[in-house]
Amino acid sequence: MAYDPTTPRLADAFALTADPSAYVPRLALESALAELAEGISKKPACVALTGEAGLGKTLLLHVLRQRLEGSYEALYVPFPHLAAPELWRWVAVALGLGHGEDDRGAVLGRAVRLAAEGLGLVLLVDDAGALPSAARSELIAACNTKGFSLVMAFDSEDQAQLATLPAHVRRIDLGPPMTPAETRAYVQARLRRVDPEGAFVAHLDLDRLAALHDASGGVPAHLHALLDAWLRNPSAEPMAPVAAAAQLPGVPLPAWLLGARALVGPRMRLALLALFVAVTAGFWLFALQRGPGVPSVGVPVEHFEPPGEEPVNAAPPPPAPAAPQQPSPEAPGSAEEGAATQVAG
Question: In terms of residue numbers, what domain contains 48?
Answer without folding.
Answer: 15-173
